[in-house]
Amino acid sequence: MEFRPVLNALMRNKTGLLLIVLQVAITLAIVCNSVFIILQRIEKVNRPSGMDEANLFTVTSLGFASDFDLPGTLRQDLDALRSIPGVVDATTINSVPLSQGGWSEGLSDQPDSVPQDKRKREGSAIYMVDEHGANTLGVRIVAGRNFNAGDVSGRTKDDKGSLHSVIITQALADKLFPGGAVGKTLYSSLPGKDGPVTVVGVIERLQAPWVGWDKVEQAMLVPQYDHGEFDASSSRYLVRTEPGRRDEIMKEAERKLGEVNSGRIVRGLRSIEEVRGESYRQDRAMTVVLTTVIFSLLAVTGLGIVGMVSFWVTRRIKQIGTRRALGARRFDIRRYFMIENLIVVGIGIALGLLLTYGFNLWLMKHYELPRLAWYYAPVGALTVLLLGQLAVFGPATRATRVSPAVATRTV
Prior knowledge:
Blueprint: H1 3-11, H2 14-46, E1 56-63, H3 70-82, E2 87-92, E3 103-108, E4 121-129, H4 133-137, E5 141-144, E6 153-155, E7 165-169, H5 170-176, E8 185-188, E9 195-203, E10 219-226, E11 234-241, H6 246-260, E12 264-271, H7 272-279, H8 281-315, H9 317-325, H10 330-367, H11 376-400
Parallel strand pairs: 4-10, 6-10, 7-9
Antiparallel strand pairs: 1-11, 1-12, 2-11, 3-4, 5-9, 7-10, 8-9
Helix pairs in contact: 1-10, 2-8, 2-10, 2-11, 3-6, 8-11, 10-11
């Protein structure tokens, strides 16, 4: 079949042609970028945190009694939590990973006295724990050692404690010390201005509290008890349980802490799975919304093609009957409309490819999204093309049922 008669017929229906072309182009651009964003969000939500999330929970203590002793109560609480049957370990912690709230610090491989262009500097999340911190979190130490009791000191508003050692994540180690971090010196304001600390261990992975941070894999464990640097009455604990016993031990932990000291409020009892769910709630919601938009657009585009081709078939009843009378087979009639639709959708795809990359450049500029991978556009184009052919098949099949006698009814 020659394309010229098909093009001539299409040019007699310019309005319908333009509407379908624009609809296909816009659908392709939105679908490609939406699928890209959805996959980015799914990857983000499912990335591992490095913790034993399924068996972890956190609980907060807030003292109100006039004689409330934070350092003494903190140690009593840890002893009580670790004594509960089914508890693997427990630690104090200043902030919870993935919780969207915490403390960060700038770290350098050289002191401030060294010119800025000669020293590396990286941001890191800070988790203050004791010697049980790594085991409680369930992180894996891949180099060096864990903290011991002698490493841990207390920290208050006026006294930074005796901080000498830290454990950092592999991602942070790769940035600051590519050749190996254990035994190297870090400089930060944690032990005092421009104070040095030694890296004694490297853990495989631990994420920062802020799930949208571009340095989310950069974190550091600091061996210190927070004895009221910011709040002289509150403390937070992280508890790891045996598999399958988390929920029952959460209730027992709340009861146990209430027995240890009645001059405080025990609150904020949450599993880490719940913390993760709340932090990634917007990402999951966006995935659902974009998925709905994709299927809605594809459905509207498909129905638009069905409606337009049905209209064209109705207007060409006599023409179809004449062709049938001249010997055209049913296959020829169906092929005509499918080729016609192929041309229309093809023009829409060509325009849609330009819109797809233009939309992606706009998202990169305003929302810091990465560049669209090359294969999204051809896969999206093929999907829209198949959708168009599927949509036209029904009206084209109805056109094949037109009798040759129709050609003579109005003569």
